[in-house]
Amino acid sequence: MLSFRRAIQLGIVLRLGLIIYGEYHDRHSALKYTDIDYRVFSDATRLVWSPKVSTGEIVASGWLSRRLNLGLGDPYERDTYRYTPLLALLLIPNEVVHPLWGKLLFSICDIVVGHLLYKIFCQFPPLQYPQHADDKTDEAAASAKRSQFQAQVESSAVLWVSAIWLLNPMVANISTRGSAESVLGLLVVSSLALLLSGREEFAAVMYGLAVHFKIYPIVYAISVLKWLRIRDPRGGLWGTGWMSWRQIRFGIISAGTFLALGLAMHAVWGYPFLEHTYLYHIARRDHRHNFSLYFYPTYLSYPASDSTTPMPSPSGLSRLLSSPLLSFLPQMGLTELAGYLLASKIEDLPFAWFVQTVIFVNFNKVCTSQYFMWYMWFLPIVLPRLKMTKTSAFYTLAIWIAAQAIWLSLAYRLEFLGEQVYLPLWMAGAVFLVANNFVLVKLVQAYVRQ
C-alpha cells in the first residue's frame, strides 16, 4: 500500500524528472517546454536585479527607492509582466544561483500544497466513524476501532491527494513548465488549512498575502466571514446579531496585511505597481481566443490597429457585451451568493471556496485552462464528500470532457490551421460554459444531499 511519505517522494521525482526533460526538450525542439510566462518572470527578475542605469534602463520609481537609492530596477519594463514585484523578488536566485530556481520553487510549492491537503483531509475526513454500543463498555475494542478508522482515513487521503495532486502529470507539468500558480495555491490552501485548524490570526495574514499576490481570492471573504460567525454563535456587536469580534479581527489583520504589502510595493515601484498588478486586470480587454463567453464580443469591438488580424467594425451590441461591467456583475453576484449560502457548517468551507472559484473562472472575461488550477487544489478534499452513483459521475465527467474537446478542436483549427472559425469557437465556448455550470450544479446537489 502506498504511504504518504512514498507519495511525496514519487511526486518529487516526477517533478525533477520533468524539469530535467524540459531542459533537454528546450535545447532540441523549436516548440519549447518552458512556458512563455516563465520567461516573462525571469526577464522581470533580471530587470529588478540588474537595472543597468548606464544603458538607460529605468529603475524603480517609488519615493522610497529614490530616497534610499535602493538600486532596484523596474520589472514592469518587461512587456506583459502583470504581477506583484514580490514574484520577481522570489525569483532572484534565478540570477544568482541558477535559471531553474523558479521551476524548483514552484515544484516545492506543489509538494507543500499536497501535504496541506493531506492534513485537511485527515482533520475533516469524509468517512463517518462507525458507532457501536460496545464502544462505551470495552475501551480496548473502541481503541482498536478508532485506530482502524484512522488508518482507513489516512489510506483514503493518500489515494485522493496522490491521484489528483501529487502524482497528477497535468499538475506537475504546469509547475515544471514555469507557471507560478502553485505559489498562489500554497497561499490559498495555507489560509484554508490555518482557518480549519483554528489559527485564525495566521490565516488572516496568509489570506491577505494571497489577495496581494493575485486579487481574485478576495471573493472568499464573504464565506470566511459567514464561517467565522458560525464558529462564534454568541450575540454580535451592538446587538446586531451578525457581526462578531472574530470577524472584525480577521478583517483587520487580512486587510492590514494586504495594505501593508501594497504600500511597501508602491513605495519602491510607484504607480506602475498599481497599474500593472491591479488596475490593468479591472479594465483588461483580451481579444485572443479563450474559453470565456466574452472573447468574441471583445474581438469584434477591438480596434483593428491593435491586432494583426483584420477585424470587422464593432457594433454597439459588441461594445456592450465586451464591457467590463457586464462581465463583472453576474460573475461577482453568483460568486458571493454561493459563498454565503454554502458556508453553513464548519467543514463546508473548502466546498464553498471550490464552488466560488469555479463560478469565478466560468464567468471570468478571460478563461484559459491554466485557470482551472485555481479550483483543482480543492478537489482532493471535495470529491470524496460527493454522493454520486458511478453512472452519474461518468456522464458528468463525459459532458465536461466532450465540451472541452469540442472547443479545443476549433481552437486548433484557428491557431494552427489559420481557419477563420471565430464564431464557431465562440459558440463552442458558450456550450462549454453551459456544460461547466451543469457539472457544477450536479456537484452541488451531490454534496448537499450527503
UniProtKB/TrEMBL annotation:
<keyword id="KW-1133">Transmembrane helix</keyword>
<feature type="transmembrane region" description="Helical">
    <location>
        <begin position="351"/>
        <end position="372"/>
    </location>
</feature>
<keyword id="KW-0256">Endoplasmic reticulum</keyword>
<feature type="transmembrane region" description="Helical">
    <location>
        <begin position="393"/>
        <end position="412"/>
    </location>
</feature>
<dbReference type="Pfam" id="PF05007">
    <property type="entry name" value="Mannosyl_trans"/>
</dbReference>
<dbReference type="GO" id="GO:0006506">
    <property type="term" value="P:GPI anchor biosynthetic process"/>
</dbReference>
<feature type="transmembrane region" description="Helical">
    <location>
        <begin position="424"/>
        <end position="444"/>
    </location>
</feature>
<keyword id="KW-0808">Transferase</keyword>
<keyword id="KW-0812">Transmembrane</keyword>
<comment type="pathway">
    <text>Glycolipid biosynthesis; glycosylphosphatidylinositol-anchor biosynthesis.</text>
</comment>
<keyword id="KW-0472">Membrane</keyword>
<dbReference type="GO" id="GO:0005789">
    <property type="term" value="C:endoplasmic reticulum membrane"/>
</dbReference>
<dbReference type="GO" id="GO:0051751">
    <property type="term" value="F:alpha-1,4-mannosyltransferase activity"/>
</dbReference>
<comment type="similarity">
    <text>Belongs to the PIGM family.</text>
</comment>
<dbReference type="GO" id="GO:0004376">
    <property type="term" value="F:GPI mannosyltransferase activity"/>
</dbReference>
<feature type="transmembrane region" description="Helical">
    <location>
        <begin position="204"/>
        <end position="228"/>
    </location>
</feature>
<protein>
    <recommendedName>
        <fullName>GPI mannosyltransferase 1</fullName>
        <ecNumber>2.4.1.-</ecNumber>
    </recommendedName>
</protein>
<dbReference type="InterPro" id="IPR007704">
    <property type="entry name" value="PIG-M"/>
</dbReference>
<keyword id="KW-0328">Glycosyltransferase</keyword>
<keyword id="KW-0337">GPI-anchor biosynthesis</keyword>
<feature type="transmembrane region" description="Helical">
    <location>
        <begin position="248"/>
        <end position="269"/>
    </location>
</feature>
<comment type="function">
    <text>Mannosyltransferase involved in glycosylphosphatidylinositol-anchor biosynthesis. Transfers the first alpha-1,4-mannose to GlcN-acyl-PI during GPI precursor assembly. Required for cell wall integrity.</text>
</comment>
<dbReference type="GO" id="GO:1990529">
    <property type="term" value="C:glycosylphosphatidylinositol-mannosyltransferase I complex"/>
</dbReference>
